[in-house]
Amino acid sequence: MNPVAVFHTAADYLRAHRWEVPTYAMLAGLVTEAFRVVEQQLTTQLSGLLTPNLRQQLDALFTTEEQAPAHSHRPYRLTTLKRSLELMRPAAIRANIQDYTVLHALFTHVHPVVQALDLSEELVRYYARYVERAQVFQVQQQADKKYLMVLCFVVYQFYQLGDLLTETLLQAVQTHRNAAQRETQERVYRQQQDSAGNLRQVLDGVVAHGAALVELEHVAFSFARTNAEKVAALLAWLQTPDVAAFAQLRQTAQQLRKGGGGSPTGPYYQVVEERSRALQRRLGEILRLVAYEGRPDSPLAQALTQYRNRAGNPGSQPLATFLKAAERTALQEADSPVSLYKALLAGHVADHLKAGKLNLVHSLSYRPFETYLLDAATWAAQREELLFHTNLTDLRAPGPFLDALQTKLATAFARTFERLNAGTNPAVRQRADGRPRFLTPARPAEEDAPPTRPLFPEPGLISLHEVLHTVNQQCRFTECLEHWSPRHRPPRPAERVFFAGVMAYGCNLGLTRMAHATKHVAQSTLENTVNWYFSLENLRRANDAVVALTGKLPVSRLFQRAPGQTHTSSDGQKYYVAVDSIHATYSYKYFGQDKGLVSYGFLDDRHRLFYSTTFTSATREAPYMIDGLLHNDVVESTIHSTDTHGFTEVNFAVTYLIQVAFAPRIQSFQDQQLYAFAGMAVPDLAAYALRLGKPLDRSLIEAQWETILRLIVSLKQKHVTASTVLKRLNSYSQHHPLYLALRELGRAVRTEFLLRYMDDQDLRKRIDDQLDKLESTHQFARAVFYGQNGQFRYAGKEEQQIADACKRLVQNVIVCWNCLYLNEQLFQARPVERQALADAIARMSPVSWQHINLQGEFDFSDEALTDALRFDLGALLSVEWEAAEG
């Protein structure tokens, strides 16, 4: 849906096939006409599919609840459906549920029409996002295609709201569990303190009662007494105060048991029951209205169907076969079984959604796994062509690929342990327990030495506006910020408006504060520009333009440690979120009692930040690692490093298949298990206290080979983002055969890497250096994102990502300006001085910002006070008034 992208693709295609390239006007005209024809065909086809009833329902979206003109307190029905509240407050959840109910009713009518039109997901998203940005009158006035736009909006918004309510459910359940576990621990601790006396009393009573029972046993089995005497002694004992006191201990024991003393889980389920109502206020309607689907024979799916059919009232005998034994026992003993049942049901629904046993069919993020891959029919018909275009022809058959991997693994085993046994690995020392200790060489002192003369201007000398302007003059990154509507676009705003928008988000100042702080940019103009031009895709293209310019500069090559390779790395940086947002979660380790998110950034060895994204702090970083490697159009990584948080065996497998060497820095890597294929000769690892896992199963990988290829082709063709599909795949854990096959393949790749990591100290040093480069950019990011105490103040996912993309754009622009400045110094230096200057530059980093004035300037000149207000203090002090009577 981007005519400019289609134009460039067509031109590239013509050049690649050595066909004649027409003039710009002719090719642009062809592309524009093609878009117009497709839209005309769709609107014509749609007019024949719209029934009078459906047309009336869509027209109703352009009216208000009352028969009166719209205003801020009486919005159009279409306006109210745009308001997805990405918050965890019960009121916001209720508003989302109301919108979901309205959209569901519309969706049941429009979905058959969308299927009949065979609209692609990209086309639906494009028109839907246009409706989100546009005013209602702007949509309504396009009489020829307004129904197509609104149709797509209903479908896309229904999908988005379903995902949002699902995220609400998952986060609410996790928060509920964390709170219940925390309160259980606190309650158990208090009970241990409070019940010590009661427990001692019960134990003393049991001991005394036991002693009395021993005496009664002697009486009962005594031959010196008659039966009548025995009965009399028993009756006399029953009348003693000790028996009455022991009877009272039953109540004390029951209190101890109710408090958790008699339960292996303590008072956990009691706490869950007590906190259930708060959970129900958030999730009751979600479970009742959102159609999660599972296998028909699934006990949970049946219980969920019963719950919906009974309008959220499970009744006295709800289906409980999906519950664990301990949960069923707790349900029988609960004071309010219905409350406990609802909490347990919500918890199991969340677990099954994560595990892929429940799915949301009409969804973007929670669909069945198979729907994310290329269509099976398309794959069967175009397999060879797809493998050729994605440069994966070497993976056509699993046999040769796995044979080569097995040979490579055997060579790594032999070389590493041959050098260990011979003592020829200079970076290995023996520990006291016999285990090897692998050393990484320190950085030479001359690399840390400061340059003999300053290479950058004085601190604060260059304004950020000047930096943005200078770099924009060289690469025109603002031209990448295109209007959402490629046709019928209004006059383009001035460059300063784009700079103001980038700084407002990138420096975390906010649009209002930025508009108030500048003289030549009106707030309405700034807000309108951001609305129509600042899409996430546009900002990523703007970043790509700056990154590409930096890569062209000769000076940037000085920062590469291994020419011919592109070494990249990724890491997450934590940020507080100062507003209520469903996309921010608690993390006591990083945020204490507050919420936050992760900005996950990618850096190459030339200090170019080529990709970033955001997600909740409770999400693991590993699924997002592949996104940055595949979803950028400038940096092609050959080796990629992360810390331990980015490492999984599935990531090892996927990166190996897309021909990127994955080289993470794994904490305590000596404790990782090594693996080998069955029948492979492996040296004795016992002498080095290393562990060998069970043999790898080639048949498991071969059985899933076609699905593995479909997955990799889907990722390389950007049919789906890696984070979306890998999060679903990882959540399936051991139950999904594709996960098991990728894990098996990843174990082989990881073992080969670990063996090289042990053997090659230079590899360890390069990994450390690249990760150090990335960690140095974290302080840089804090300096740039200084407004609002460095806290995100955006609740919506898209706005959080736009702010993150603008922050990255500011960082990339500063790095690019620094490289331009250093390149200028090299150009102006005398030939005899250039090598020494180049060596000095190579030892430093272009990630420097002390000379950039990020926070603007105060104007204390007399001219700035020309229009200052002046007050007549004498007149002001003489003002009198009388209080009104009555």
TrEMBL record:
Keyword Protein biosynthesis on entry: no
InterPro entries: Tn3-like_transpos, Tn3_Tnp_DDE_dom
Pfam family, one: DDE_Tnp_Tn3
Record's keyword annotation contains Signal: no
Sequence ranges assigned to domain Tn3 transposase DDE in this UniProt record: 466-858
Keyword annotations: DNA recombination, DNA-binding, Transposition
Superkingdom in the source lineage: Bacteria
The family this protein is said to belong to: Belongs to the transposase 7 family.
Protein name: Tn3 family transposase
Source species: Hymenobacter saemangeumensis
